């Protein structure tokens, strides 16, 4: 209901968002990305040793032969991307999954191919499952130039892990090991709203994460995706809100910077993020790409992905073509998530004034104490972050869940309408 109200207001359009079939997969002509100074590259590694019931992301069980086929196709997609985008400057390279470390023996070749086809100027980041962490792996990653590590701990509490059908993996020692090897940024992913999780359980997780080496924590509410196989359901919305409230209070006492609605970091440390870029190119099955005028989504099927690449075609299944205001509302959404609306960045990107484009909405938000205006733009207040926390979960279930559900079942959908 809430997204149905906000969508037409912010987009200045009553039509639903509509993903349509991608029709330019054979087109290798150059596409000018306007030399963006904040262009990320995301590479999806869709393999896991076991499937976590709560995880919504695109993945399959690891198979050595399939992984090799996938690696070869990925290298070809990187080269295809260079034909279309002409060796763009890349400000970050991020490996997600799945479990990227399962392809550790191929990562050097993948990174070298990226460097041959793009100007890689920024950080290298990778997601790790605690079961994969050992000294040999970490030293290899450091030798390859990775400076940002994110570990999917979810919780240090045995009972919470059991509620997620997750086995213990000596999590504390694994984070200590990451710190000992030495990485610039160590992000620990935690989940709150787990069945039977108490506020004290969550606070202990947060305190322990920073005590043993985290420079940042990403604390995500437990969301029950329709296609996930969760045996237990998340805590009610009001309980999750209370937990977020306690997180914010605890972060203030610890002197942490709140870098987004759900992330908290030590001051003066490099922040880790996979999605908050003005534009990004996504490679691999299910990977998304964000540009000024469109949002593209690759086929989720590994087999269809490989088939497309081997025919010298892009593997894009769906595209959402932005209107002027739908692109602006996308920017608003993720910058509110980052707790900050910078008016100069908005003007640089869109050539218009934030305060004029959304005069009424910003005025209402200020009166409701959801935003506070400063010399740089607008800061999201603590009250505003709770509202966004609620909206984000609704958005996830109404938009992301529906899109991914369709894409998981049909590798080449005709269209998806999102109301």
Walk me through the topology.
Blueprint: H1 2-11, E1 17-21, E2 39-45, E3 47-48, E4 60-61, H2 64-85, E5 89-97, H3 104-117, E6 119-128, H4 135-143, E7 148-154, H5 158-163, H6 171-181, E8 185-192, H7 199-212, E9 216-221, H8 237-254, E10 257-258, E11 263-265, E12 279-283, E13 288-290, E14 294-298, H9 302-310, E15 316-321, H10 324-337, E16 340-342, H11 343-350, H12 354-357, H13 359-367, E17 371-374, E18 377-380, H14 382-409, E19 415-418
Parallel strand pairs: 2-5, 2-12, 3-4, 5-6, 6-7, 7-8, 8-9
Antiparallel strand pairs: 1-15, 1-19, 9-11, 10-11, 13-14, 14-15, 16-18, 17-18
Coarse shape: globular
Q: What class would the helix/strand composition place it in?
A: alpha/beta
Total number of distinct structural domains: 2
Helix content, binned percent: 40-55%
Instruction: Return residue spans where pLDDT drops below 50 for at least 5 consecutive residues.
Output: none
Termini separation comes to: 9 Å
Name of the CATH architecture of the largest domain: Alpha-Beta Barrel
CATH third-tier fold name of the largest domain: TIM Barrel
Report Rg: 21 Å
Strands, count: 19
What kind of sheet is the major sheet?
A: 9 strands, mixed
Task: Note the total helix count.
Answer: 14
What do the pLDDT scores average to? 94
- What fraction strand? 15-25%
- CATH first level of the largest domain: Alpha Beta
Write out the CATH superfamily name of the largest domain.
Aldolase class I
Spatial strand sequence of the major β-sheet = 10-11-9-8-7-6-5-2-12
Domain Radical SAM core: 33-257
GO molecular function: 4 iron, 4 sulfur cluster binding; catalytic activity; metal ion binding
GO biological process, one term: porphyrin-containing compound biosynthetic process
Keywords: Iron, Iron-sulfur, Metal-binding, S-adenosyl-L-methionine
């Amino acid at each position: 209901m809430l997204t149905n109200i906000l969508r037409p207001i912010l987009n200045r359009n009553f039509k639903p968002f509509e993903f349509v079939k991608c029709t330019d997969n054979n087109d290798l002509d150059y596409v000018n990305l306007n030399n963006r100074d904040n262009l990320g590259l995301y590479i999806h590694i869709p393999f896991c040793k076991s499937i976590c019931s709560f995880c919504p992301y695109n993945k399959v069980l690891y198979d050595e032969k399939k992984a090799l086929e996938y690696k070869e196709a990925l290298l070809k997609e990187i080269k295809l991307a260079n034909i279309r985008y002409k060796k763009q400057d890349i400000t970050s390279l991020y490996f997600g999954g799945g479990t990227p470390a399962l392809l550790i023996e191929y990562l050097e070749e993948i990174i070298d191919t990226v460097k041959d086809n793009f100007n890689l100027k920024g950080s290298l980041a990778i997601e790790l499952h605690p079961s994969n962490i050992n000294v040999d792996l970490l030293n290899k990653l450091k030798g390859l130039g990775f400076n940002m590590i994110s570990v999917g701990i979810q919780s240090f509490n045995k009972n919470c892990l059991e509620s997620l059908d997750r086995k213990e993996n000596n999590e504390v020692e694994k984070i200590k090991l990451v710190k000992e090897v030495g990485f610039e940024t160590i992000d620990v992913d935690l989940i709150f709203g787990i069945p039977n999780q108490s506020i004290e359980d969550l606070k202990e997780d947060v305190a322990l994460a920073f005590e043993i080496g985290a420079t940042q924590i990403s604390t995500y509410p437990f969301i029950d995706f329709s296609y996930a196989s969760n045996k237990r359901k998340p805590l009610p919305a009001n309980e999750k809100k209370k937990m977020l409230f306690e997180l914010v209070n605890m972060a203030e006492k610890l002197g942490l910077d709140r870098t987004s609605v759900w992330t908290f970091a030590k001051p003066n440390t490099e922040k880790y993020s996979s999605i908050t870029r003005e534009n990004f190119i996504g490679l691999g099955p299910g990977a998304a790409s964000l540009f000024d005028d469109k949002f593209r989504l690759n086929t989720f099927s590994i087999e269809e992905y490989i088939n497309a690449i081997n025919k010298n075609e892009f593997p894009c299944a769906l595209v959402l073509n932005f209107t002027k205001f739908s692109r602006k509302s996308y920017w608003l959404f993720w910058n509110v998530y980052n707790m900050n609306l910078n008016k100069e960045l908005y003007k640089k990107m869109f050539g218009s004034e934030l305060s004029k484009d959304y005069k009424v909405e910003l005025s209402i938000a200020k009166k409701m104490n959801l935003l506070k205006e400063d010399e740089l733009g607008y800061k999201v207040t603590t009250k505003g972050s709770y509202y966004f926390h609620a909206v984000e979960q609704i958005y996830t279930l109404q938009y992301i869940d529906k899109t991914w559900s369709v894409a998981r079942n049909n590798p080449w959908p005709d269209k998806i309408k999102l109301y």
